[in-house]
TrEMBL record:
Pfam families: GFO_IDH_MocA (PF01408), GFO_IDH_MocA_C3 (PF22725)
Keyword line: Oxidoreductase
PANTHER family (UniProt xref): BCDNA.GH03377
UniProt xrefs under Gene3D superfamilies: Dihydrodipicolinate Reductase, domain 2 (3.30.360.10), NAD(P)-binding Rossmann-like Domain (3.40.50.720)
Ranges of residues in domain GFO/IDH/MocA-like oxidoreductase: 142-279
Name of the protein: 1,5-anhydro-D-fructose reductase
Lineage of producing organism: Bacteria, Pseudomonadati, Planctomycetota, Planctomycetia, Planctomycetales
Protein source organism: Thalassoglobus neptunius
One example GO MF annotation: nucleotide binding
Enzyme Commission number, as recorded: 1.1.1.292
The Gfo/Idh/MocA-like oxidoreductase N-terminal domain, residue ranges: 5-130
Amino acid sequence: MTTPVRIGMIGYGFMGRAHTNGYKRCPDFFPELEHQPVLKAACARSKDKIQAFADQWGYESIETDWRNLIARDDIDAVDICVPNNLHKEIAIAAAEAGKMILCEKPLAMSAEDGEEMCQVIEKTGVQNTVWYNYRRVPAVTLAKEIIESGALGRIFHYRANFLQDWTISEELPQGGEALWRLDADAAGSGVTGDLLAHCIDTAIWLNGTVADVTAMTETFIKERVHQATGEKTKVTIDDACSFLCHFSNGSLGLFESTRYARGHKALYTFEINGSEMSLRWDLHDLHRLEVFDHKDEGALRGWKSVHVTDHSGVHPYMDKWWVPGLQVGYEHSFVHHVADFMKSLDEKTPCAPTFRDALETQKVCDAVLASAKDHTWHKV
Ligand code: SOE
């Protein structure tokens, strides 16, 4: 007998689809879990659009006001898939109504807002998680297991990039339904909250907390037409952001993100260098973990590329899929997150990253943006 977790999805964009695919695949590929998602209702202001989304993806019903969705007795968990400026109000209302919450990243517009959200969530005790999905790419989870085993020795360096090129055109407007990521009022920040937040979440998970940062940002295109008014308006998001940091474990960090790296569509890479071993991962080759082990000796010492598709249990999540040697993709990170959320309900444990975990990333983002403004080092 399974226990249904009735999902109320708010939003229907790219992330709404990615999460919904996760809910749909979970019962088929993780049938052993007692809790399983049920697509109960989808919500957005446009009735036609949300009805079309619900029909296509299999939600039983629709709502056009998130307050009505949260008030429903037949909703157990609310999935917040709307622009960042709406996360706080919805999350707090959902928690106060006793709903579990799965919130899209970044957690909030600022660490101050995030702290407020955490306090309500923790007071109400509702189960919660934030969709930093890359933790659940099997090769990244494997990196975490190897680092936790101590095999890397003393860690010296962590570096990460998230590179895109989709905003290079000056003709691209800002704001509105599709381009809210370019509007600071809706997104809070540019690449820092959208892209670097992923790199920071993974980095904290793999290498511990960040102590201080020094950063630079640039807004290459200063004005864009705003979709709401049709007027040219100042662009206040960061188009590119790079920062240096010290981790609390004494290692040094180097991070870069931009939407102006011509040719790169979504290149997320990280590398970690320890005294005994280095690991490297690349989203465009996401099923591989590159490993250099200093213990290897002789002529064949070198970087090896591990195809993370073993089914014996040594490669996280992989025994759930197909047969050994056949790899998985981007969408599976969301399926794994849903499965881990359901498992956390079975086992009555938190599902990382929780709001509190995601707040740590938010604090680094805030420190990065503050440092870029005043050109000094900022403690996190
Ligand atoms: C932006 O283009 C974006 O879709 C981010 O919003 C996602 O979080 C990232 O995973 C891919 O890029």
